């Protein structure tokens, strides 16, 4: 992934520096408001990363030791790690073969009386079935945290991902379509949660640093609970505000490139590319391809041959339960997760990708199919 950053972002960052307000300040507040409006949420709380957003989304719901939180293993390891940060137990559920997402059935298969929450990921920007999973979570009386790290610009049931979510976490890492370098956001319609989230990200202070500096009178702040330093800077927010204006065009361009990939890959048997689910549209944050048994070459050899041809492809999405950090965990069988992480790869998809690049990539894949 090559972030699309240009002179406008550079000027916005420079203006923030020249303003003298480089920590969390007015640009962060504006970025929160505009991003929340974009995804259809009542409140946005900017933080330092999606990992810290996930952490705070659990903290604000008082999830902790003794609680189980169902997560996909088929996700970046931060999804499961956030559960451990609050002292709860991550429970791995399997995913759908085509979307890489949790479903009501895969969650229900590992649900117990100790389940307090689910973290469902819109994997690679592919929206999970928000109607089905939100309804199930409500029926089971468990919290649903939406890990929308990759999903800015994706839609579900005709609305932006994030609309109607109880609480969602977002990433602005450089691999994402909308980037601030590092950074994240929590969105929610719950005003009380939003107020507490703002305190939690800023050491538990009852008044923000921006409000304190803006006051004409001395402010004697209080620290209401043990909290964190998870703030975003105004420099990052300045870049984010410019990126917000680019998002629709970025999504349009990536979807056009993905459509061309689909057309080029169609004649090659044994390769199954990611597609839109029936209930929504993906932003194609990642374009992964699953290698079927009909294909003549294994995934690792394909990656090696692509690298030899000058193509920077990557292995598919990781399976957290196979990593050393979770070696002591014995999950329920996860056959789809293990198949996807073993047999999939991510092809280059970025704003600088040309049709000639795509032709070259697909030609290599075509030769390996024989």
TrEMBL record:
Originating species: Micromonospora endophytica
Record: active site: 176 (proton acceptor)
Residues where N6-(pyridoxal phosphate)lysine is found: 176
Annotated family: Belongs to the DegT/DnrJ/EryC1 family.
Gene Ontology terms: biological process: polysaccharide biosynthetic process
Family annotation (CDD domains): AHBA_syn
Sample GO molecular function, one term: transaminase activity
UniProt keyword list: Aminotransferase, Pyridoxal phosphate, Transferase
Needed co-factor(s): pyridoxal 5'-phosphate
Pfam family, any one: DegT_DnrJ_EryC1
Protein name according to UniProt: Glutamine--scyllo-inositol aminotransferase
InterPro entries per record: DegT/StrS_aminotransferase (IPR000653), PyrdxlP-dep_Trfase (IPR015424), PyrdxlP-dep_Trfase_major (IPR015421), PyrdxlP-dep_Trfase_small (IPR015422)
